[in-house]
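ok so I'm stuck.
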Amino acid sequence: MFENIKADWGRYLSLTSRVHESTFLRKFHLFYYEFGFQTTVVHRLGAWARTELSSFGFIPLRYLFLVVYEVLHAMVQTLYGIDIHRHATIGKGLYIGHFGGIKIGRCTMGPGCSVHQQVKLDDDTTVGARVWMGSHAVINHGAVVEDDTTLAPGAVIPACGIVKKHTLVMGAPARVIKRNYDNRALIGRPLAHAGGTK
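replied:
not stuck anymore, here's the structure
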């Protein structure tokens, strides 16, 4: 859990830095005002309680943390409009750039991804590493989005659809606009702990 949170934290710091802002102010702003980061920490807590605490046999402690998680999950869902399914598997270095209308189902998401407002991922979807999902993008049930792809705002991936690596897709339903698309400017400077370089 802590390794994942550290990677999330580092990614937010790298993407939200402000000119002439001290390190202390950056960290203060991140901790108190980045609602996506707070929601991600809540999700990491729940995943940790369900898996790692169970494997060590700390059953009473596990249930205590799960109760805390459920309360915090309900709070961030209500206050921030971000709902991450408790059984979603999300790689380290997640960046949620805006809050509101975000629903991440029981999916698998690789490291170093970016999610924006009104993005929706159905259950049983698979998202690779370093995928940039623009606002109002939708990934429907059973779809697969491979590594280093970019979903333009409003892109809709149909059920069981496949988006190949390094492509830019747009539209509803989504169609390929550009192949061999380099999304590093959108994703941000690659971090070793957020999926590495291409």
